[in-house]
Amino acid sequence: MIAFSLAKKNIIRKQERSLLTIIGVILAVGSFVALLSIAEGLNNKLTSEIVSRNVDIYVTASGAVSLPTGSIGALGSDDEEVEIEQSLPKDAISIETVKNKTDIHKLKRIRGNFIDFLNPDADGNQKVPYIKHAIGITRFQKKIRGRNVVFWGLPFGTSDDGTPLFNLYLQGMKVQAGVFPIETKQYDDIYSCLEKKELSSLSEEEKVFISGYKIAEELNLKEVLDKNDKIEMKTSSSDFKLKPEAIISFNSGFQDYFCYMPIQTALAINGTTGKVKEIWIQVENKDKIKETKRLLHYYFPNLEFKTAEEYLGTSGEIVKYAWFMEFAIALIGILIATTASMNTMLMSTFERIREFGALRAIGANRSVIASMILIESLILSIIGGIAGIIVGIIGSTFLDDAVKILFRVSFPMANITPTLIIYALLLSVFIGVVGALIPIIIVYRLEIIRALKWDM
Amino acid sequence: MRIRMKGIYKFWEGEFGKIRVLENVNLDIADKEFIAIMGPSGTGKSTFLHLLGCIDKPNFGEIYLDNTDICKINEGIREQIRLEHIGFIFQNYYLIPTLSVLENVMLPMQLANSFVGQQEEKAMKMLELVGIQDKWNYDTAKLSGGQRQRVATARALVNEPGLLLADEPTGNLDAKSTREVMDMLKIVNRQQGVTTVMVTHDSKVAAYADRIYYLDEGRLSTANI
Ligand SMILES: Nc1ncnc2c1ncn2[C@@H]1O[C@H](COP(=O)(O)OP(=O)(O)OP(=O)(O)O)[C@@H](O)[C@H]1O
Ligand SMILES: [Mg+2]
């Protein structure tokens, strides 16, 4: 097609200008991809984690807004914990401090009015039917060796029917019993170790945790583990020494970037004994989730109960918000690129008006010239778009590091998804079309005789 | 192609009101005729050719190419006439700078979708005719004025038009090249029966034509040389 070969030749003839346009598009598409990769990654990881967790109903304090992965978005504050805790109505979700330290059976779970209420009693009777398990979990974030680390406090005991409670979490993580693939210890060893430690976790000496594989690498924990050593954790109130028991690998979602400890240890370290962030409920029969939720809401009107979808939806809202924020920032780059591309196409149009006139005079119709302009603009913007995607992918890793520091997040979030790449390509096509728009209008309006006598 | 012009007026809006460029121009040109137009600079010779070439429109008057009044038809048909039936050698050549010599000559065929499959051959033949075939892959920017004029001529003739409009086709040529180009135009006019309207300053060049007209102060008259 003649329009195509003319467009191609003009791009080659005006190399500097073509390059400039391409650079503009690279900047726009690159910043778009890099910025939005964060929201995309967050979304993907959240979804995969929440879906895989196998929790049917989430109990949170009413009005509590938090991402399931912890303190993302707690901008620069060291006290994000407090704020979230404050939003917890103390009467409703508080767990009584362990009363009877000798009652091992009961200590296996976090004891407290609420969770006891949910779980069947020793005789198997339940106030709320259909509930299989209910566990309290907590999270907090602290600096270790200069890095922000998210700790999960989880119950490591077994339920009355002998199911390891932590398994509720682990099942979701697709880690089966006996498969702690990384480092030294067998699942059972760690498990029993943590279970034992759970009992004495309130003593200053014996604070243990297990570490996700990725964060272990960042903290250089293997060495500590090999030496049977401890690492230090500073909090505002006091310092703790923590002993890594094992390094585990989940190979999915965020989990490799977290550390895990018995919930009592977590509560003690965090100074929030008696409060959990969330309670996770597994229902015996999936058909009964809605009914159970309704019943729970009836009993506890000032708590929030969310199904997994609703819980994901709440996080999804935050992700959506992040998406728009990031898009707004990227928009500046997009506007600059679009203007730059319009400008170059406009300049190149005015320079070539005599040429267009000549083409028209020998019989080319307007649409040939319009397609030539459009193709030229599209070639540049698509080349820029593809290069921009590559730049964006590289940039996203840098941005990820920046975000980790700025927002004190302990795990990488950036994720380049096919959707994102399709959006980026659409964006570059958009820039190309908009860049060609005004020149095309000019060409359609121009009289041949004026074009032929055009002076720059 | 037969041409009839009736009562043609052409004005330009100038700083001090209307400039009358053509005033009541009437002209009949028979099919296969070779006409020369002479006249001082700025009298509207190029304007006159533009009107014939469907590039511009008169303010008043009728122009018939064969039996079509080209002032009354829509732009799409004018485009088609320009492309298929008229060859125009512009005073400033107007070659396409991004295209090579050969590509410039091929362009009208590509636009018209004519001579499909033999466009290159045909273009080379035209370049041979104007005597510039050895420069076929040159950048047009690297050609001299005379060479450009030859390429423009080849491009104008490649679609085998019925009407050739040539605005100073020898304006930049030396005496020898002028003779060559004029011989060539004469041959094309005679052998292919192309009606030719040529603008020139040079009375020796004008002498190649069957008839010579003189354009001055907007009026066309038969020249008395
Ligand atoms: N687009 C235009 N707008 C206003 N005036 C114009 C325009 N085009 C031509 N003219 C005027 O019309 C007159 C005729 O111009 P034209 O180019 O036809 O002259 P010409 O006879 O071809 O001259 P030359 O021999 O120098 O080529 C000139 O006075 C010119 O200034
Ligand atoms: Mg002229």
Descriptive tags:
heterodimer; A: 456 residues; alpha+beta; B: 225 residues; alpha/beta; Rossmann fold; four-stranded antiparallel β-sheet; 10 strands; 28% strand; globular; binds magnesium ion
- Going by CATH, the architecture of chain B would be 3-Layer(aba) Sandwich
Mean pLDDT of chain B, rounded to whole units? 91
Strand content of chain B: 25-35%
Give the biggest beta sheet of chain B: 6 strands, mixed
Helical proportion of chain B, percent range = 25-40%
Largest sheet of chain A: 9 strands, mixed
Mean pLDDT of chain A: 73
**Approximate strand percentage of chain A:** 5-15%
In the CATH scheme, what's the topology name of chain B? Rossmann fold
Strands of the largest sheet of chain B, in order across it? 6-7-8-3-9-10
SS element count, helices of chain B: 7
Helical run tally of chain A: 17
Roughly what percent helix of chain A? 55-70%
Order of helix and strand elements from N to C terminus of chain B = EEEHEEHEHHHEHEHEE
Beginning-to-end CA distance, first to last residue of chain B: 27 Å
Structural domain count of chain B: 1
Overall radius of gyration of chain A: 30 Å
Describe the model.
The complex is a heterodimer of chains A (456) and B (225). Chain A contains 17 helices and nine strands. By secondary structure, chain A is an alpha+beta fold. Chain A folds into two domains: 2-44 and 317-452, no CATH class; 63-301, no CATH class. In chain A, strands 5-6-4-7-3-2-8-1-9 form a nine-stranded mixed β-sheet, with helices on both faces. Chain B has one domain: Rossmann fold, CATH 3.40.50.300. Helices cover 34% and strands 28% of the residues of chain B. The model of chain B has no long low-confidence stretch (mean pLDDT 91). Classes of the chains: A alpha+beta (456), B alpha/beta (225). The site of adenosine-5'-triphosphate (ATP) has 10 residues of chain B, from helix 1.
